[in-house]
Amino acid sequence: MQLAIVLFERLTALDAIGPYEVLSRVPGLEVVFVGERAGSVRTEVGSLGLSVDATYAEVPRPDVILVPGGPGQNDHMTDGPMRRWLRDADATSTWTTSVCTGSLILAAAGLLDGRRATSHWLSLDGLAAFGAIPAEERVVRDGKYVTAAGVSAGIDMALTMVGEMAGATVAQAVQLGIEYDPHPPYRAGSPRTAPPEVVAVVRGVRDSILN
Amino acid sequence: MQLAIVLFERLTALDAIGPYEVLSRVPGLEVVFVGERAGSVRTEVGSLGLSVDATYAEVPRPDVILVPGGPGQNDHMTDGPMRRWLRDADATSTWTTSVCTGSLILAAAGLLDGRRATSHWLSLDGLAAFGAIPAEERVVRDGKYVTAAGVSAGIDMALTMVGEMAGATVAQAVQLGIEYDPHPPYRAGSPRTAPPEVVAVVRGVRDSILN
């Protein structure tokens, strides 16, 4: 089994590395970081470089595809090398997955037409614009398509996938191995639980970037 | 303010990237990935390369030090470039922190003598051997020293630190930005909650590596 994690400039690091940390621990699953060209990409805030180890052409038929999100997602919403590879690879994949705004890339490529999917809570509307059915859930599965909500949700998605791929005992062993017993010091991880003024701050930052 | 995240061969990726994703969002906090030599290191399972952007000599006085763990931790338990830098940098740091078995490196360098600290649940005994007082908690603060339990605990530690450094509103905005509203599909993230057979599997894997 081969998992291809797509890297591109200005991705959000944890979108890719959360699932990587979980899925790389599954026996028999080879992980390859794939991108338009070998070398490295810089993440969202620029202070982290991640290595691209294989080009799209070198990984034509991964069993599992994972597309992270981040500000750089906007560069891949039209036809180009990533979209062409995604469509080809999706034709034979067992699972096609995304974290955060990675689902907008899948949707824009036409892979989520009429399917339930999720994204970062600030980007759910965007999914509908590309023909998907937005679902306000942390992990959404529709057939072979699995999408996760914002950034950290990729960890939950990956554990769900390990359960499907390798069974509950392996998934639980991975969870215990990474000591994933979360205790956030605040209850602000969702717009449903965060204080309204915090939601306004985050919406404002987003709006100031987009406008 | 400058945060130095230490990279070394065979670190555990999420130990470094979980806190990075949180702390890189703090206004005014510059993040630099530091290591023995510029270039890149490969993580635990070898399929991810992370860029080292500055050598130890180039980052003599970071305000915050973060040491991740992973199998490569074993290479840094004796005197060498990392230990010498840690001791010097710690002399002027505001915070000195670790995730997972990174605390063993800090302890072996003599920085946790007589201090409460935590580590990956499988490595708590090791802390005591190096003079620290092991605490079975997810995030432990003793003075300027903050240590996190295994791998994913670095996210909780980082949010706790943001609250201390920049206040609760910023910390909550970061939490909402990365949609950290965890819903693990299993309750296996701690040896206290995981099924006994799962605990035995993970202990067995560790023992098979060590013996």
UniProtKB/TrEMBL annotation, chains A, B:
SUPFAM superfamilies: Class I glutamine amidotransferase-like. It comes from the Bacteria. It comes from Actinoplanes hulinensis. Residues 3-162 form the DJ-1/PfpI domain. This is DJ-1/PfpI family protein.
